[in-house]
Write a structure and sequence with these properties.
- It contains 5 helices and no strands.
- By secondary structure, the protein is mostly helical.
- The chain has a single domain, classed as lambda repressor-like DNA-binding domains (434 Repressor (Amino-terminal Domain)), CATH 1.10.260.40.
- The longest helix has 10 residues, at about 50-55.
């Protein structure tokens, strides 16, 4: 059996972090160009596509999880 070190765990972006950054769900939806109800339906984590958009639009202040870029 070969030892394979695991990659460091990077915290996953949460919907609450995105809302805290922008102030309101409406502001998040405005930044992404989607409806407020779309943001309201996310649950605890934004979809990967939206995580990538948020990372780019916040210039890295919010970080998308690694899997969000792997399935890009």
């Amino acid at each position: 059996m070969t030892y394979r070190p695991r990659a460091p765990i990077i915290p996953t972006m949460t919907t609450d972090e995105a809302v805290a950054y922008y102030g309101t769900k409406q502001a998040v939806s405005d930044a992404l160009g989607c409806a407020r109800t779309t943001v309201a339906m996310w649950g605890q984590y934004p979809p990967h596509r939206r995580q990538r958009q948020l990372e780019r639009r916040t210039k890295g202040a919010l970080k998308a999880e690694r899997e969000a870029w792997e399935d890009y």
